[in-house]
């Protein structure tokens, strides 16, 4: 008889510029983890390089509000007026149906909501930058945003850093290779792959 698939959820949250997206992309490439990326829904317009159903599910604010009414979201947030982001319940169901574990690259509020909904199935990881000053340097290096937008992100980062203790694990991203290795170990432990490996080595 086929063993029932026990789908897990991996939440990676952090202030913008902490390196969480780089870590998530790296973990998705590790075949043994069997991970699939949770695509968020948003009511904002797509940027030139973004594809619907790959980067985000782009839906109108009206449609988003209707889905909220229908209780179709695991978590959602109105970032500013009529600018919504959220995780559809169907997205997690879609990934679990493929017998894969779900990985999220998501803000701290959404990450903690998912952890609260699935406390036993979720590993919530906070990625911490070396300092707020370093964060500012990284955001400036991207050259994708105005000084005002960067300052807004920095102000938000200070609030987000205060939530770190609410997460299961904290990765300090001072050195990227070390952070990637740490992330791999956390995922392997939660999937009990390290235990299996140790058992096979001890046979």
Written description of the protein model:
- There is one protein chain.
- The chain has 203 residues and is of the alpha/beta class.
- It folds into 2 domains: 7-34 and 101-203, Rossmann fold; 38-99, Guanylate Kinase phosphate binding domain (2-Layer Sandwich), CATH 3.30.63.
- 43% of the residues lie in helices and 21% in strands.
- The chain has a 5-stranded parallel beta sheet with strand order 2-7-1-8-9. Strands 4-3-6-5 form a 4-stranded mixed beta sheet, sandwiched between helices.
- Helix 5 runs antiparallel to helix 6.
- The model has no long low-confidence stretch (mean pLDDT 91).
Radius of gyration: 18 Å
Largest beta sheet: strand ordering: 2-7-1-8-9
Overall, the morphology is globular
CATH class of the largest domain reads Alpha Beta
How many structural domains does the protein architecture include?
Answer: 2
- Helix/strand-derived class? alpha/beta
What are the low-pLDDT stretches, counting only 5+ consecutive residues below 50? none
Report how far apart the termini are.
Answer: 25 Å
Output the CATH homologous superfamily of the largest domain: P-loop containing nucleotide triphosphate hydrolases
Helices and strands, in order, run as EHEEEHEEHEHEHHEHH
| Helix coverage percent | 40-55%
**Per CATH, which architecture of the largest domain?**
3-Layer(aba) Sandwich
Within the CATH hierarchy, at the fold level, what is the topology of the largest domain? Rossmann fold
The proportion of strand residues reads 15-25%
What number is the mean pLDDT? 91
The oligomeric status of these chains comes to single chain
- The total beta strand count reads 9
- Number of helix segments? 8
Tell me the major beta sheet: 5 strands, parallel
């Amino acid at each position: 008889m086929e063993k029932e698939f026990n789908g897990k959820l991996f939440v990676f949250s952090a202030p913008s510029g902490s390196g969480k997206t780089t870590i998530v992309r790296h973990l998705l490439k590790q075949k043994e983890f069997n991970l699939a990326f949770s695509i968020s829904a948003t009511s904002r317009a797509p940027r030139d390089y973004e594809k619907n159903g790959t980067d985000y599910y782009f839906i109108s604010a009206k449609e988003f509000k209707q889905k909220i009414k229908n209780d179709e979201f695991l978590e959602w947030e109105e970032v500013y007026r009529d600018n919504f982001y959220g995780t559809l319940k169907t997205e997690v169901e879609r990934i679990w149906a493929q017998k894969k574990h779900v990985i999220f690259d998501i803000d701290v509020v959404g990450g903690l909501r998912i952890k609260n909904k699935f406390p036993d199935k979720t590993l919530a990881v906070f990625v911490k930058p070396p300092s707020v000053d370093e964060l500012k340097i990284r955001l400036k290096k991207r050259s994708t945003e105005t000084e005002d937008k960067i300052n807004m992100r920095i102000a938000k980062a200070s609030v987000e850093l205060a939530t770190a203790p609410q997460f299961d694990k904290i990765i300090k991203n001072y050195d990227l290779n070390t952070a990637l290795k740490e992330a791999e170990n956390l995922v392997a432990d939660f999937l009990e792959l390290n235990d299996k490996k140790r058992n096979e080595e001890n046979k």
